[in-house]
């Protein structure tokens, strides 16, 4: 059966609202929830970007059942992978082993703030491979020293570590990243309904869950939903190769000047009808994804959760 997740967009909601939204999602029957991990929103209209790891600690204590994960954390620049290993182990303990660590190679928007520059994609992927080795080694209690091209460990040890290592899930935008996920993590996460990503992961030996984020905007009408989606999510139409490279919110504003509400509506289902949203979601299920994370765009989370309870969840779990 497909597992259903709820996306906590830390760029669109303050920390206290994120915790309240999560509690509502748990009550509504979501299986898991995934929080973004940014230092900046994509566009100024979003208006938020709290520290995900502090919020995760609060979430672990405010809920009882729902799974928690990052979607996704970049353990390459702002964070050293050893610090993320410690953070993940702590959240896993606080949540009673309900935590999964979603990882990716990051975006310049969030990582350039430390002032060390933004390397090319080949270096970023090489760094990610080393980071995965460190994270797996520390969380598994098997590594204390590491000497790589980009990262080092010196007598590292996690003193508070869960009995079962935290699962690692790797974001993939192409087959190479999907194969890396199969080799060095426990699952795959993507944002496009691309069957070839799941196939590359499975063919490379990946046997874990395949997560997909699906954006939508439940609203009183299709036009109203498109307006909301345009205000808060037009940045997503730039595509991942561009999204990874733009340095600040002003860049995303300039890059999306040509984007209309109708264009955003072609990418994210909008409006009050469950049928339209189910059609969009089913594209990901048909592509082979078995963990679907639903991301309601904009402030009206209650309208979305009510539709999820009433129509979306029963249809998807049938």
Salient structural properties:
alpha/beta; globular; 15% strand; TIM Barrel; 13 helices; 318 residues; single chain; 44% helix
Strand order of the largest sheet: 1-2-3-4-7-8-9-11
Unreliable segments of 5+ consecutive residues: none
At the first level of CATH, what is the class?
Alpha Beta
CATH topology: TIM Barrel
CATH architecture: Alpha-Beta Barrel
Strand fraction band?
15-25%
Question: Count the helices. How many?
Answer: 13
Pfam families: Bac_luciferase
Protein name: TIGR03557 family F420-dependent LLM class oxidoreductase
EC number: 1.-.-.-
Keywords: Oxidoreductase
Describe the protein.
The structure is a single chain. With 318 residues, the protein is α/β, with parallel strands linked by helices. The protein has one domain: Luciferase-like domain (TIM Barrel). It has helices spanning 15-28, 52-62, 81-95, 108-111, 121-139, 175-184, 195-203, 222-233, 240-243, 249-255, 261-267, 274-286, 301-316; strands at residues 3-8, 32-35, 67-70, 99-103, 146-147, 152-153, 168-171, 188-190, 210-218, 269-271, 291-296. The strands form 2 sheets. An 8-stranded parallel barrel has the order 1-2-3-4-7-8-9-11, surrounded by 8 helices. A two-stranded antiparallel ribbon has the order 5-6. Helix 12 (274-286) packs across helix 13 (301-316). The longest helix is centred in the middle third of the chain and has 19 residues, at 121-139. The N and C termini lie close together (9 Å). The model has no long low-confidence stretch (mean pLDDT 98). Pfam families: Bac_luciferase. Its EC number is 1.-.-.-.
């Amino acid at each position: 059966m497909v597992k259903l997740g709820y996306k906590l967009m830390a760029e669109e909601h303050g920390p206290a609202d994120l915790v309240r939204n999560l509690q509502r999602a748990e009550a509504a029957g979501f299986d898991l929830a995934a929080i973004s991990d940014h230092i900046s929103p994509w566009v100024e209209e979003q208006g938020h970007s709290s520290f995900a790891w502090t919020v995760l600690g609060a979430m672990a204590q405010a809920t009882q059942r729902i799974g928690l994960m990052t979607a996704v954390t970049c353990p390459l620049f702002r964070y050293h992978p050893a610090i993320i290993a410690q953070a993940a182990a702590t959240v896993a303990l606080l949540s009673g082993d309900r935590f999964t660590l979603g990882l990716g190679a990051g975006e310049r928007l969030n990582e350039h703030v430390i002032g060390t520059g933004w390397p090319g994609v080949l270096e970023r992927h090489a760094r990610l491979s080393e980071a995965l080795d460190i994270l797996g080694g520390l969380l598994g209690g098997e590594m204390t020293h590491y000497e790589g091209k980009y990262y080092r460990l010196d007598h590292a040890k996690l003193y508070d570590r869960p009995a079962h290592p935290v699962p690692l899930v790797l974001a993939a935008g192409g087959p190479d990243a999907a194969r890396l996920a199969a080799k060095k993590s426990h699952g795959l996460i993507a944002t496009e309904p691309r069957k070839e990503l799941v196939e590359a992961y499975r063919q490379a030996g990946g046997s874990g869950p395949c997560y997909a984020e699906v954006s939508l905007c439940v609203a009183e009408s299709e036009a109203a939903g498109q307006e909301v989606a345009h205000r808060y999510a037009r940045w997503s139409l730039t595509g991942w190769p561009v999204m990874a490279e733009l340095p600040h919110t002003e860049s995303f504003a300039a890059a999306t000047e040509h984007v209309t509400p109708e264009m955003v509506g072609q990418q994210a289902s909008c409006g009050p009808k469950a049928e339209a949203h189910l059609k969009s979601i089913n594209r990901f299920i048909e592509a082979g994804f078995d963990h679907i994370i639903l991301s309601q765009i904009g402030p009206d989370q209650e309208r979305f959760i009510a539709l999820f309870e009433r129509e979306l969840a029963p249809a998807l779990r049938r």
